[in-house]
Amino acid sequence: MTDTLVTQIAREALMMILILSLPTLAVSLLVGLVISILQATTQVQEQSLTFVPKIIAVFLTLAITAPWMIRLMTSYTTRLFKHLPNLTG
């Protein structure tokens, strides 16, 4: 196993993490931005007002994108396990 191969596997793993976390992080960012704008406009500074909509939005996003995420993770893992004999020997 060469250094280049290890670097490539680590790079693919980091890209997979980035791709899988992007939808949830983007939705959380957008909901937080909208809530912040509403709070600044109405001057209501309630702490639970920021967290509850974010949590609901993140759970909904995870529920909607779960099949896609699972399909992506299983294809990556299957590809990694198929190449495992070539990696060790």
UniProtKB/TrEMBL annotation:
GO terms for cellular component: bacterial-type flagellum basal body; plasma membrane. One of its GO terms (biological process) is bacterial-type flagellum assembly. Its main location: membrane. The chain crosses the membrane at residues 12-39, 51-70. Pfam families: Bac_export_3. It is found in: Cell membrane; Bacterial flagellum basal body. It is a multi-pass membrane protein. Keywords: Bacterial flagellum, Cell membrane, Cell projection, Cilium, Flagellum, Membrane, Transmembrane, Transmembrane helix. It comes from the Bacteria. InterPro entries: Bac_export_3, FliQ, T3SS_HrpO. Role in flagellar biosynthesis. Belongs to the FliQ/MopD/SpaQ family. NCBIfam families: fliQ (TIGR01402), fliQ_rel_III (TIGR01403). PANTHER family: FLAGELLAR BIOSYNTHETIC PROTEIN FLIQ. This is Flagellar biosynthetic protein FliQ. The lineage of its organism: Bacteria, Bacillati, Bacillota, Clostridia, Eubacteriales. The gene is fliQ.
